[in-house]
Amino acid sequence: MANAGIALVFFASTRAWALVDLNSTTSPALHLRFNGRQLDAVPVALAALASIIVILAGMVRSIIRRSLGVVLMVIAGGIGVVSLSQGDPVALVNEAIADSIGSYQDNYSYATTVWPWISVLGAIVVFVAGAILVLQAFPDRVRKAKYERNPDEQALTEWQALDQGIDPTFPNSTPLD
User: Which side of the chain, N or C, has fewer Cβ within a 10 Å radius?
Assistant: First the structure.
């Protein structure tokens, strides 16, 4: 579930978040498109960190898994806040225009798209996955049971008895020294 939200954030960051039209009297009109990574790379970096935490959560014990769920929820909140701040990215658009054409421009118009909200939706999915991880982290006894021997299996098989020097045909046989 968390992987689906992370993939949604990654995908949304590759789409156009701001469409800019430069209307300069000294140069032809320019139509620029800026994706989420061009405007701000923080959601992508946080999504990469969240994917690492999801991988780690499968390898650790219950207490640490729950704390990783809390960290995942905090990261999802960060992705959501940064993506929501892209709803009106005036300063970021100014910087992106300066990086694209080499100078700051005052005469432009821009429109935002729905992709920052898709990134927020991905952050919500990651947040819910983190909350589920906090609330439903399976206990360690499930993993321990996989490696414990069943009490019924404590008796030696005939081959194991022979390996230890016990004659399985005699009821009270002891190992040969």
Answer: C
